[in-house]
User: Which sequence fits this backbone?
């Protein structure tokens, strides 16, 4: 993409963003006028009922973002931690489960890709386990591990392993036969062939699997933390909903999206770095 098209895309993105802000401002202004009178429920409950925050305006949302980002690492107790601390806990759990999955999936995927017999033997197990929702494993993990943080890491491991395993096996099995024939002719050892021929050729496909796994892991950790509580961005969303703070919920959703985009860009850069042009 040249510089001209990049500028055009950036300008279009800015126009779409400003249009969205205009719609948001119009919607919140209309809702504020309509919500001036007490509802029948509020009249029955009286002033003792805790009122949920209404939909914030863009200006109010900006103030919330500024407040959270001005001190993201404060710690005032179990239920009052800064957004930076919450994200750090989530990222540590995602990183732990993702690394464990890579340690298992990459070598196993290599073996499956290089051995048609092993592929046929393990494929039924992969096809049965792959469609199971990662959160379905959470009750079993909590029962056996008896620790919510470790159980969350296990769930990330389960959801991350399949895309990496399948893509690694496919990438290894798809290496061009003539390259392997040349290595065989030169009597290259198995380890040298694996690291100097197969791995560079399969690296783009492997990195694609890792990129998909990271995206799924970031989705799952939010839901897992909502279930087990404690700390993390998922717990932050649920806690703020219980506090009836819609503004903080929207802020957390935005942060989830920003961090997810950053993770995807990072793996996209790595994927581009290992991709070769024939």
Assistant:
């Amino acid at each position: 993409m040249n510089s001209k098209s990049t500028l055009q895309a950036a300008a279009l993105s800015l126009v779409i963003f400003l249009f969205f802000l205009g719609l948001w401002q119009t919607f919140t202004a209309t809702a504020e006028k309509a919500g001036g009178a007490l509802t029948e429920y509020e009249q029955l409950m009286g002033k003792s009922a805790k009122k949920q925050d209404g939909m914030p305006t863009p200006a109010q949302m900006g103030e919330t973002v500024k407040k959270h980002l001005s001190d993201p690492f404060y710690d005032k107790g179990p239920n009052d931690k800064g957004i930076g601390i919450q994200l750090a806990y989530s990222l540590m759990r995602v990183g732990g489960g993702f690394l464990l999955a890579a340690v298992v999936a990459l070598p196993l995927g290599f073996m499956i890709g290089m051995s048609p017999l092993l592929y046929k033997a393990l494929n039924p197990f992969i096809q049965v386990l792959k469609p199971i929702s990662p959160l379905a494993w959470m009750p079993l993990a909590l029962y056996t591990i008896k620790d919510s943080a470790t159980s969350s890491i296990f769930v990330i491991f389960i959801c991350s392993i399949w895309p990496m395993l399948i893509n690694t096996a496919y990438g290894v099995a798809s290496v061009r036969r003539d390259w392997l024939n040349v290595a065989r002719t030169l009597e290259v050892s198995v380890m040298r062939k694996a690291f100097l021929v197969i791995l560079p050729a399969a690296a783009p496909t492997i990195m694609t699997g890792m990129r998909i796994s990271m995206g799924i892991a970031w989705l799952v950790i939010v839901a897992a933390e909502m279930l087990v509580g404690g700390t993390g961005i998922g717990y932050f969303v649920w806690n703020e909903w219980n506090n009836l703070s819609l503004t903080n919920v929207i802020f957390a959703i935005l942060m989830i999206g920003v961090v997810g985009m950053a993770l995807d860009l990072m793996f996209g850069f790595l994927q581009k770095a290992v991709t070769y042009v024939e």
